[in-house]
Amino acid sequence: MAEALLAVDDLQVHFPVRSGVFQRQSATVKAVDGVSFSIARGETLSLVGESGCGKSTTGLALLGLVKPTGGRVRFDGTEIGSFRRRDLKDYRRRVQIVFQDPFSSLNPRRRVRDAIRVALDIHGVGTRAERDAEVAQLMARVGLRPDQADNFPHQFSGGQRQRIGIARALALKPDIIVCDEPVSALDVSVQAQILNLLADLQRDLGIAYLFISHDLGVVEHISHRVAVMYLGKIVEIAPKALLFASPTHPYTEMLTRAAPTLDPRHRHSFSASSDDVPSAINKPSGCPFHTRCPLATEICRTSEPALTTRPDGRLAACHHR
Amino acid sequence: MAQLATSKVGAAIAVKDLEIRIRGERGSYPVVADMALTVQPGETLCIVGESGCGKSMTALSLLRLLPEAASASKGTIEINGEDFLAMSQHRVEDLRGVEIAMIFQEPLTALNPVLTIGEQIAESVRRHKKLGHKAAMARAIETLQLVQMPDPARRARQFPHELSGGQRQRAMIALALACDPKILVADEPTTALDVTVQAQILGLISDLQKRLGTALVLITHDLGVVAEVADRVVVMYAGRRVEEASVYDLFEHPIHPYTLGLMGAIPRPVAGRPATDRLVDIAGTVPPPWDLPKGCAFAPRCPRASARCLEERPPLEEKRPGHFAACWEHVDG
Description:
Chain A has 321 residues and is an alpha/beta fold. In chain A, 31% of the residues lie in helices and 23% in strands. Chain A has ten helices and twelve strands. In chain A, α3 (112-122) packs parallel to α5 (158-170). In chain B, the strands form two sheets. Chain B has an eight-stranded mixed β-sheet with strand order 6-7-8-3-9-10-12-11, sandwiched between helices. In chain B, strands 2-1-4-5 form a four-stranded antiparallel β-sheet, covered by helices on one side.
């Protein structure tokens, strides 16, 4: 098997919680707590989970936008190690990000042409005229009219702004784009436009995506493989079809059951009762999911299950399945 | 022309010919037009549409809670048979909470941050049910129990910021239900919540509605939520109804091209439709309400649009029994 494009091993991001007059560290939030996965060229791996599970922090840590407190990242055969500035320039060119909110991720006072061109400027690609020509091509590629290049972000709709964000990420011909909830803020008809665009770009340019989302429908549509996160850990990784057809981890099962069906003749019978979701500051002992798990027994309270390979090739972390 | 929502005796809500206008920098323009709704006791009506279609304005008008720049400029709203628009402000305040109550999308901005959950609910109970302090607080805890709030007596003494997102939404539902309203209006009640919590809250709302016989108007952008809870559905586009049908007819035989587009755009395939690699994308964007096209507002984005669609706005008509659409070139279903 060819080496993975990106291999993440035991990634950790811990944040100190400070309190009191002297701002002493009173606790640690283990936002990402030993996460490992790999992505092949041209592949889409989704990270799915609910708010606070660490999926976005994982994406930010991969770009060095938050500093990992532990773990290793290998990219195209090279250790990215300490995220030193010098090593990072090439890596930063080849790993790009698209953010969730197309309103706050664009500078309101910068023309779209400049927003897209700035990465080309920094990396000194071609002459000024060549860079401007490249901007026009990028805009056309993502479905924007190149004659809108002199407009400001507020003159664009949410979907168009997300296209600007994608053009900006594409400018340096990256190998992988981290997409952090790229369609969550969009209406469903516009969301479909952006998802189709991402699929076209992958087909034509062979870009890999780390696709971070809470929306199982979107994840089921766009992914090749899916990793489910819960309180800073991956609890299951499997090819999409396998994961959705027969979830192994009880949390994966809970998530897939909770998603609405779109079939009024086969409605869920949702339970109205509340189960309290623990936070990353106050993580349960043992298996982090045991407080909500219908299968939990004594061993789940005391010992944390490891992510192990199952007969069908998937990975899951559960004592009982 | 057929009018779907004729006011029937006993309807909880009867809206006729409603127009809501906004006066702003761009002059005065309608954001909701020709709106008509009837909701029977115990029935769930979902209003579905994308941002800016007028669904939230419609919801706010049902409680006379429209923002200052907006007003109901035409039509009538009857709540349990009473003309709501002609009523004095004092009378409206008497009825809010008792006859009709609202659940908002974002409980953190809808709840008062400096009052405990219990005080907020008790305040409403004291005003409407004329109960004393102690009895009102007891009623508040009882209501928190009703919405299955874990540890209700303790939660009643806590402030909104001390609760999780799901608990806050339960607190707001409790606040809405405290005086046994006959009508509940919920504006995107689960949009800000995680999917497992959304499932609990949807379960809770439909549970309570069945037990209490409340009429429910639920506003959402999410067809998945519609499929789970609706009896009838109104699809809105650019301030108008474009399709209205029972939830089964709508999902099984949608006839308006916009509804079909919405269903094709959902990544998770609608039951009975094959999964595809490519989503239907509705080209273009929703026109702004101050600059609507002349004919059908959807025509510029519509794959079926004809010359007539660009010139003449189609009225909402009964195309099949109980199934209404505003379209000259609709699908036969």
